Amino acid sequence: MRKSIKERVYEEAEYMKETKKTIREVAKYYHISKSTVHKDLKERLVLLDYELAKDIEEIFQNHTAERHIRGGESTKQKYKSLKNK
Questions:
Q1: CA separation (Å) from 70 to 37, 67, 75?
Q2: pLDDT tens-digit series, residues 16-46
Q3: Cβ contact 28:15 at 8 Å
Q4: pTM, whole model, 2 decimals?
Q5: Which of 20, 30, 53, 84 has a beta carbon 3.0–4.6 Å from 46's, enabling a disulfide?
Q6: Range of 35's domain?
Q7: Please, are residues 65 and 37 in contact by the beta-carbon 8 Å criterion?
């Protein structure tokens, strides 16, 4: 694995660990695709740092558990803004 990829993987992982941001938010912050972030944090990070990968996996599981709440809130805000127009 190239050094630049390793550095990117560690940067993404540390950012996600500190901020608890979603894959989508991390991708937007680093101006890369969601697919790249997902591959970096799910596959490449395990090869580089298993302990950090376990921490990131916990964050992923938390996001999965909260997904239905976020989606519902987003839909609520969407229709609220349409009603106000």
A1: 20, 5, 9
A2: 999 999 999 999 999 999 999 999 999 999 9
A3: no
A4: 0.78
A5: 53
A6: 3-84
A7: no
